[in-house]
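Example 3.2
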Amino acid sequence: MVTYKKRYNDSTQVACIMVAIMTPKLGRHYEGYWSYEMNKDLMEKYHKQARQEKYEVVKSTIDNMMKEGEPISSHVQRMQRYMDRLIKLNVNFDQELEINIMLNSCTSYYDQFMLTYHLNNNETTLSQLHNLLRTTEVGMN
């Protein structure tokens, strides 16, 4: 009986916390629901919407090509915002894929850089890649 009361109290606390962090309108709708019921209902309501958003962000990320004459920093920052959004949507990918997507989105002016980058086979972070691309951009001007 003690275990049941503890679990009942824990479940009630979780449900209260869930309702408390919702918008007032949504919170009023879920008053009286158990946390499991709330979670199930929210998943049913918002799963399709999240899937559609993931699709649109992935598509935008892949379709986002650097424009001729665009500074590399603004392009990298825009791509980074897409990557950050994907992470928030629980789209998991490793840093190597992130860098490959970034390199693929650059204009043909960076072809020699990409060849050298891949030949050197260096492990870099996205910020290190950004610095390398900026240095290359300065050298091309």
